[in-house]
Amino acid sequence: MKLLFDQNLSPRLVHSLSDLYPGSSHVREVGLASAVDSQAWEYAKGDGFVIVSKDSDFRQLSFATSQPPKVVWIGRGNCSTADIEAILRSRHLDLLPFEKDQESSFLALR
């Protein structure tokens, strides 16, 4: 599973989670640092990424349009990069079936 981390998340997550999510990237790494959400959406859709964000706009996009891409929404307020890494590590076994599910497009993690 390849994750595309949104601007509101640290690019350090790409490296720190590479053992579980190889091939992941951050919007900064693919030239989308100042892109609007729809551009990141199209990039993720075209390259087979699951978007990870704390942004409610991606949550709304996932309900308004069909997948791909799928969206993993981190539903926590202010938290550290280490907290986000811990969430994605501890929920790895939930993310794998989510990626394969043909009907699910949104997963909230807290």
Explain this structure to me?
The protein has helices at 12-16, 37-47, 56-64, 81-90, 92-100; strands at 2-5, 25-26, 49-53, 71-74, 106-109. By secondary structure, it is α/β, with parallel strands linked by helices. The chain has one domain (2-109). A 5-stranded parallel beta sheet has the order 2-1-3-4-5, sandwiched between helices. The chain is globular, with a radius of gyration of 12 Å. The two termini are 20 Å apart. 28% of the residues are buried.
Strand order of the biggest β-sheet: 2-1-3-4-5
In percent terms, what proportion of residues is strand? Answer: 15-25%
Tell me which oligomeric state these chains represent. Answer: single chain
Rough outline:
globular
Give me the Rg, rounded. 12 Å
Total strand count, please?
5
C-alpha termini separation: 20 Å
Question: How many strands, which pairing sense, and closed or not: the largest β-sheet?
Answer: 5 strands, parallel
- Coarse structural class: alpha/beta
What is the total number of structural domains?
1
Average pLDDT reading? 94
SSE pattern: EHEHEHEHHE
Tally the helices: what do you get? 5
Q: What are the segments in which pLDDT stays under 50 over at least 5 consecutive residues? A: none
Helix amount: 40-55%
